[in-house]
Write a structure and sequence with these properties.
Largest sheet: 6 strands, mixed
Distance between the termini: 48 Å
CATH architecture of the largest domain: 3-Layer(aba) Sandwich
Strand order of the largest sheet: 1-2-4-3-5-10
Number of strands: 10
Order of helices and strands: HHHEEEHEHEEHEEHEHHHEHHHH
Helix content: 25-40%
Shape: globular
CATH superfamily of the largest domain: Zn peptidases
CATH class of the largest domain: Alpha Beta
Bound molecules: zinc ion
Number of domains: 2
Length: about 525
């Protein structure tokens, strides 16, 4: 088997400059926070337009072309300096805005990609795709950039008025569903000189956390088997089936699975199974996500998969090579930053849901077999310590950012509790008043927390100290990417090309319609169980 890299080199994050705060920036925190919250409220319309617009683009990972064009154009108009095509990602960008000289550098990120086959009409509580078989925002990644942008613009105005120095850096999570982008941004040095990063992710709560959360880090890796074609009936003994190699690898993995830690998660699809049955497949591919909870365990799991691939190649007399398609480090979030954000979460509180919001949420929960049935969250969660033994689960490549600079994730309540995730049901609320109210609440917390980071040098110092002395005490960042790995930008290209013309007919037109629901003529709230055939 050809593997040209086992170069897992520990890298400690770059040093961060200590920064003094000029006297002019010392506005009363209460006053400053009230001011940026007013700035967010004044931009509620902008946040709705951005969320609805991105929902209508419904673009899959690596193909977020319209989304990137729209967001970068908007940020340029607002005075940000935009760099496009960052880190070999055609849809990657970084937008920077600086006031004065020096001052903290704060990075705000959020994902932008959708989910295959998750097309769904927003505001309809039963299955009703907008484009049959098409992609959709079945994870709610249409909303986080709206939150970040309105918070950044509110803070920008306050920084200008009070002469507060600092830099705001906005960046997208490209192809997060493929764990395909953030490690490349890290490798490219996008976070060099950044003092603190706040990442936003849609949820049903307004919350944050510190330490290692439940979940996993992972590698996404595809094994390509090569054999020899032959007439599958006339001369099968002349052929060597690459599909046999794939199936042997899958079976080998299933045998090994029982002897892996229960916390591991691993799954695969056969991404190429050959062409047609009467031709012995000369090429076949199997694509794995391998997930574990420490850098070492992830490296061991990848080695195990390589060994099983080698065995499968021997069994089938084929050859095998592997290609890295994505990676996500385990996550670790910053305690001082989380505590600062939590104080702002408590000050902001959950959105004021009205009876329509709650009736709609309950209708969705009843129709889709949700795990809870009491509507939207109304109580804030407490900020607790991290789990002593984190449960297993999904991954997010914000992990790579979190091992590069002090980072937190702010979760905001734009979706309905109890949904399965990565599913059309998770798209239902994402261009409705529920999503819009959740984004606005999150943007208030974000703006207030940026004010904390810009005006409290001790907070930044504490964040650095936690990062250095607590987070990095027992393990360090081990990037999986080698210098010759490149983003898997071909993924989703064919799917997006197939559906984009149909999606384009339904792009949101904010010049003509007050909301996407209005454009789609969806009554709010639409309740009930829908037409019989929809069930
Ligand atoms: Zn996500």
């Amino acid at each position: 088997m050809r593997i040209d890299r086992h170069r897992l080199i520990g890298v400690v994050a770059a040093g961060i400059m200590a920064l003094a705060l000029p006297a002019a920036a010392r506005t009363a925190p209460g006053g400053a926070k009230a001011e940026v919250v007013r700035g967010v409220e004044a931009r509620a319309k902008l946040a709705q337009v951005i969320s609805d617009q991105l929902f209508s683009y419904a673009e899959l990972g690596f193909q977020e072309t319209e989304t990137a064009r729209y967001l970068t154009t908007l940020l340029e108009k607002e005075g940000f300096t935009v760099e496009r095509g960052v880190a070999g990602l055609p849809t990657g960008w970084v937008a920077r805005w600086t006031n004065g000289s020096g001052g903290p550098v704060i990075a705000l990120g959020s994902d932008i990609d959708g989910i295959p086959k998750a097309s769904q009409t927003p505001g309809i509580p039963w299955r009703q795709p907008m484009v049959e078989g098409g992609p959709g925002h079945g994870e709610g990644h249409n909303s986080g950039q709206a939150l970040n942008i309105v918070a950044a613009l509110a803070v920008r105005d306050w920084m200008v008025r009070t002469n507060t120095p600092g830099t705001l850096v906005l960046w997208p999570g490209v192809a997060e569903e493929l764990l395909g982008g953030k490690a490349y941004l890290v490798r490219e040095g996008v976070f060099k000189g950044v003092d603190a990063a706040i990442f936003t992710h849609v949820a049903s709560q307004l919350a944050t956390g510190w330490g290692q959360p439940s979940g996993t880090g992972m590698v996404s890796v595809e094994y390509t088997f090569k054999g020899e074609s032959a007439h599958a009936a006339g001369a099968p003994w002349r052929g060597r089936s690459a599909l046999d190699g794939v199936i042997a690898m899958a079976n080998g993995w299933e045998m090994r699975r029982e002897h892996l830690r229960p916390e591991q998660r691993s799954h695969y699809v056969i991404s190429d199974g050959g062409d047609q049955p009467n031709v012995v497949p000369s090429q076949a591919k199997i694509w794995f996500y391998l997930r574990e909870q420490s850098f070492d365990a992830i490296a061991t799991m990848l080695k195990t998969a390589d060994d099983i691939a080698d065995g499968a190649a021997k069994i089938s007399s084929t050859t095998v090579s592997r290609r890295l398609l994505g990676t996500a480090a385990i996550q670790h979030f910053n305690r001082p930053m989380a505590e600062a954000a939590q104080a702002n979460i408590v000050a902001v509180g959950m959105p004021k849901w009205d009876a329509d919001d709650q009736a709609f949420a309950k209708a969705v929960q009843a129709n889709v077999g949700a795990t809870v049935h009491d509507g939207l969250e109304t109580e804030l969660a407490k900020l607790g310590p991290p789990p002593a033994k984190p449960a297993s689960g999904g991954s997010d490549d914000v992990g790579d950012v979190s091992w590069t600079v002090p980072t937190i994730t702010l979760r905001y309540p734009s979706n309905i509790p109890g949904l399965p995730g990565h599913n059309w049901t998770n798209a239902i609320a994402m261009a409705t008043p529920i999503a819009h109210k959740g984004v606005e609440a999150g943007a208030r917390v974000m703006a207030m927390t940026i004010v904390d980071l810009l005006t409290r040098p001790k907070l930044l110092a504490d964040a650095r100290a936690y990062f250095r002395d607590v987070q990095n005490k027992d393990q360090h960042y081990i990037p999986v990417l080698a210098s010759d790995d490149a983003p898997a930008t071909w993924l989703n290209a064919e799917t997006m090309a197939r559906y984009q013309p149909d999606l384009a007919k339904r792009y949101y037109d904010p010049q003509r319609y007050g909301s996407y629901l209005e454009q789609l003529r969806v009554k709010w709230p639409t309740l009930g169980t829908g037409p019989a055939e929809a069930k």
